Amino acid sequence: MLDLKFIRAHPDLVKHAAVTKAAPVDVDRILELDGRVRASIAATETLRQERKSLSRGFSTADAAQKAELSAQSQALGDRIEAHETELESLKTELRDLLLLTPNIPDPTAPVGPDASFNVVTEISGTPPAFDFETRDHVDLVQMNGWAELAKASAISGSRTYALRGMLVRLELALMNFALDRLAAEGFTAVSAPPFAREDAFIGTGHFPAGREDVYELRGEDLFLIGTSEVFLNSLHADEILAEKDLPILYAGYSGCYRREAGSGGRDVRGLLRVHHFTKVEQFVICRDDPEESRRWHERLLAIARGILEALELPYRVVECCTGDMGLGKVRMHDIEAWVPSLGTYRETHSCSTLHDWQARRTNTRWRAPDKSIRPVHTLNNTAIATPRIFAPLLEVHQRKDGGVNVPEALRPYLGGIEVL
Question: Which CATH architecture describes the domain 115-414?
Answer without folding.
Answer: 2-Layer Sandwich (3.30)
